Amino acid sequence: MAGLAIEQPAPTLGQAIRRIREEGATYQGLWSWLTTIDHKRIGMLYGATAMFFFLVGGIEALILRLQLARPEQTLVDPDQFNRLFTMHGTTMIFLVVMPLSNAFFNLLIPLMIGARDVAFPRLNAFSYWTFLFGGLFMMASFFTGNPAGSFIEGHLGAPDGGWFGYAPLTRGEFSAGTGIDYWAFGLLILGVASMAGGFNFAVTIINMRAPGLTLFRMPVFVWMTLVTSFLIIFAMPIITVALFQILFDRIFAANFFNVAAGGTPLLWQHMFWLFGHPEVYILILPAMGIVSEILPTFSRKPLFGYPFVVFSGIAIAFMSWGVWAHHMYTTGLGSVANAAFGVSTILIAVPTGIKIFNWLGTMWGGSISLKTPLLFAVGFIAMFTIGGLTGVMHSVVPSDYQQQDTYFVVAHFHQVLVGGALFGLFGGIYYWFPKFTGKLMNEPLGQLHFWGMFIGFNLTFQPMMILGLMGMIRRTATYEDGLGYGLWNMMSTVGAFVIAASVLVFLINVVVSMRSREEAGADPWDGRTLEWGIPSPPPAYNFATIPEVNALDPVWHEKYVEKEAGETVPAMAGGADLHAAEGETPHLPSPSIIPLIASIGPALIAAGFIYIDNPWVMPLIPIGAVITMVGLIAWALEPATE
Amino acid sequence: MGFRRVSIMKLATVALVVVVTPVLTSCDALSSTQNTFNPSGDVAQTQLNLFIMVLIPAIIILIGVFLAIGYIMVRYRRREGDPIPPQIHGNNRLEIGWTIAPTILLLAIAVPTVAAIFDLGGDFEEDDLRVKVVAFQWDWRFEYLDPEYADEDGNPLATQDLYIPIDRYVGADLEALDVIHSFWIPKLAGKQDVMPSRDNTLRFNATEPGVFQGQCAEFCGISHSFMRFTTTALEPAQFDECLAAIAENGEDPVPEVCVP
Hints:
Chain A is mainly alpha-helical. Helix content of chain A is 63%, strand content 1%.
């Protein structure tokens, strides 16, 4: 990849290994990517892989929308449809939005806190490889998932229980074949990757901030990453337990969710949503952090109400643990429980509103540059307002008895996840692309992407609000003619293809931009935070000298001073030069292949369990276990640097 | 793009979506027999009223936020040579204001919400029509539990579609034979999940005669989309005759007396 700090030409593999162990140098080529423990490269790996899965999930969505464009179509049969919507949801949440957020954590956190890397670089690499193998493992289910009907016979083998996998439908007697096993094990593997990342970033942010960088001088994106990391740490174990329970039911004939033996299907829902609700805040908080970085830069004003934006993020995270049963209003929990969760859910709108108002306040009175990053950030605000308000509509419990399990819910969560999270993440890509590649993204193509996606998004999802209130259920492969659903579904399908076209524009933009000869420079946007004080792309060691931080928005304060009259003018030259690279190159941890090796094990173990009755595949359990053990021991024995 | 074109495109898209679609909706809504916008039962009406109660302030807030965005994009757009604007960090009074005001509004919404939860979640009453709704992959069965509709041996009458009298509440016991389903008649009442191992119930009525669509609303496997039923609401006398006719001759074809 052009643009990252490369010091020597590529040698032979043997020479490369020796040089890596001797000098910690990084090289071009596949090997350097397989052994990298550099947070910037890992961030790029996360980003590129997430984009690949985004295209897969997007194609799944297009097939679903084609099927639903007209009533009573049979483009795909219900069995295939159920697998496609299960994989669409699972892919978009776990293989796209979470890893894309993780890409930003990786790329930015060390730079924004003035560190050279994360606290545990090899664990960081392990997170990525585990995610990759977990994602590929899930995708494999399309081809290998159902022994009774494989892809080759025209029958997808992917899981078909929905992304939420309600029991007892997911038990063996109602879901034959191996699809659900792939789903559950896949999520377990991905959960390991997420947990590792959660710990890594929490420790990094708490421990590795530059001198003077107090918690309340951290950029909001760093705060949101910290909060998200804690949400991940506490939420993942819950779904891990639930997944073990359903897997035990399926593979070892346990009875957790077997009604006949006294099991409780409702238990699955409680556990899933106790994880699931914090999960949706895991999905949105990083994007909110990105928006909180973009708006000040493009308004040339500091974030309005910084402490309130930070506290509202923390409040959302705490409150997210008290609302889970709003996904279960219709399950018969009783009036008291429904009322309690109704009130808690209604109130969680308050911290969200605080953020929206503070973002508007940031732009108010500013000097706003309508470049692509800002368009996506403002698009986020507009779309998330709608999403949040429809959330309040859901929180009114008796109305939710009508809305639950209809397209109104589908509209709501796409509003916040696409109009919200995805817009924020795309804004971040346009914003920080020049920092990590040294090239600005093409602005006209960016504008085309934004408007195409904005129009396409609204065309796709606003009709769904109407469809839901008109009685169209969700997770349905088709719908009857004569109910008035056809027009809105067709609009929605057209919108989906408009979104697809805009994504194509984005991909073209990436290619065009990478080839551009114009250098972006260290600070193309007149930014405020530490990453804009070092070259683009950053050197391997990030900061030649660890900066000493005296204020929020340190780079802005290096560049500008506020006079008594309130006027802001450029500072005199000669402040601390973060570009300075005299003296020795800082010592960095060495690259290592061991995280990749250790991450192979879990997927093999999972495969062995799924086919536990097959004498040829079952040995993967001990083989995978041995590989993981060897990997972990080698990891412990390998010195961090040489 | 010139700034005027940027903000006009934005406003135009918003207008298209927010203003035009409700207008278009009202034509379709009223004719559909599965629509929540045109209730034929008291429970659905209560639920719609609550929805409108939230929808109106929501639209006002939405328009307010969008107008603010539009204004900001036009008024504060950067022009060549603009100085760096005053570096304002915040305003505590505003913060308190826009924390307290939404909280009050939301608590105001919470009050009728909680009231309706308890109101709709009440126990069955003496003269409710008792029905057992049995859900299974992938169809429904309705059993009339009142002894006047049973046969000589005391077995309850069972039908494939639901028949109810108007202006009388139905107390439905919900029973699932396999996986989780959800019992939903949009024009009469919001749904309630039919959960194996739980005794969920739904109390609802119809206030006018008609045939209303119902559908399973919890994903239950391969034929989830086709797990439908109809609910026919009849005048009370006609209802009794209808059940008698079904007891005599079955539902296939539907007896004439069962058509509202």
